[in-house]
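Many introductory courses stop at the sequence. We go one step further.
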Amino acid sequence: MKKILIILMTFLVIASCTKLEDLNKDTKAPTEVPGVTLFSAAQKSFADQIASTNVNYNVYKLWSQYWTETTYTDEANYDIINRTIADNVWREWYRDVLVDFKQAGIVIGATTYATPEEEAAAANQLQIIEICNVFVYERMVTLFGNIPYTEALNIDNILPVYDDAATIYADLLTRLDAAIAGLNTNAGSFGDADLFYHGDVAAWKLFANTLKLKMGIILSDADPGKAATVVNSAIDGGVFTSNADNCEMVYLGSPPNTNPLYVDLTLSGRQDFIGSTIITDYMNPLEDPRLPAYFTFAPDTNVYLGGVYGHSNPYSEFSHIADAIATVPTFPGLILSYVEAEFYQAEAAARGFTNDTPEEHYNHGIEASFDYWGIDGAADYLAKPEVAYATAEGDWKQKIGTQAWIAFYNNGYLGWTEWRRLQYPALSPPSTSEFDYIPLRFTYPVFEQTLNGANYTQAASAIGGDVMNTKLFFLK
């Protein structure tokens, strides 16, 4: 009995020194997450959304007509409603990427740092977050058009207004310039928490200027004067000069940190995708050495054979996605590349924005593509009359557009956007589609139409109608 009383008294003493609410705290579930951790999480979601070929989120390798489907052909026929794809994409970019970047910035900005070096690193962290925000919003406005921007990401405002896409774009360029100016290459940043560049601030500066180059080119038809200014400013600031500068997500060998392509194409056990005859019919006549990097031979053959785009195609009869892409969990996720930088500069020269020659950058873009895939034979390929800039068919839009489309194979959104802007190569909708056009944009999410109806209606009217063939601001 005496021992029981001692135990009870000890418990009462401990309890009297402990707040009752503390007993209900789950010490294994932290209520505060470090800013650098939030940044890493946002980067992972960011890269996954670009790399994935899950048709619930990413249909761009289909819409660029690099791939087609075998059994379920809705997405190759431009049905994005059945799987509410626009809703999923909108949610991913806003909730899983932009919100995490925002929260990372809030935590980093509110933290007290012990040394000037830590303060300088934190300042760089905020600028890098801003650069990533610009990239994501650029993707959103070139995908949807007008979107929530000034009132976005506010939990207290669940009915945000939609801002004009061209106005957003102009503001993004202003934000990007400020972020570039704010980077201090003599200081650190995120270190290994940065999944893209491991805290290399100089690499982020190259990334930011290359993104700026891209954004300038996107504006070329809508505002040539502004585009030329942006392009030249980006080049003067320093853009990618080799594949060593590429921005990539280096994935790991085990789930859930593998490349999503490995999940979609191998772990799923599904056989949903094959090469499209559209791209194999471009590459085969040229005997393009990159074909084995893109596709396998059709089963039991020694030829690359694409399936009919948009139609049901037996998996067993056509070229599959190359093993290095489909079966390697660590295949890098490419976000921004030197290949892009060279083709954008080729276009800038062709438009008269710079004093360079289009042919020089055109050649470098093709050479960079071969180098990226570890393929020899670029010189011989460039010597072919059908490829050589001086003799290839068509005007500069056809020459650059077609070769850029082939080189952008690893990023379907780029291939689709290159076609949207330049209309090359000559692509057509499949005969199986209910639409007689290739989409130029995503329609707005269904949940926006029902929950944010007034602002949705205004936005749809402002862009010329919430349909997939509405030309967005940069296409006009």
